[in-house]
Amino acid sequence: MTPDLIPLAIVGLMHIAQFAVASYMANVDLGQGYTTSARDRAPSREMRLTTARMLRAYDNHVQMFPFFAAIVLAIHVTGQISGVTTVAAWVYLVARIAYVPAYAFGWQPWRSYIWLVAMAATATLYLAALI
User: Fold this and answer.
1) Model pLDDT for residues 26-57, shown as the tens digit of each residue
2) Domain covering 5-39+47-130 assigned CATH 3.40.50.2000 in the classification
3) Cβ pair 81, 75 in contact under 8 A
């Protein structure tokens, strides 16, 4: 496995873990009756603030992950792996790991800065592929 694919694999595992944790928290807060239903109605109980934040952090990862995965795979397939691409991929991974607790605990403005680091790492990967 190339140095750029290792962070991609870890990010994929993180994606699964983030989904599992957020789903478990929602299940505890809302009850299995609601979470296993078609959710045609509003829940009868409210989620904790941390649960709602974990779900939003996961939703953000759903939006970010395809952009990261696509460029890492493109760099791998085209053989453009370099020190820059490897560092950018690892920076993305570290930023996304840091983003979860930053969102869950409401670290303002740090959550936004961490998100920006991940986005900058992704942009760096795209630029490196074009140069």
Assistant:
1) 999 998 888 888 988 888 889 999 999 999 99
2) no
3) yes
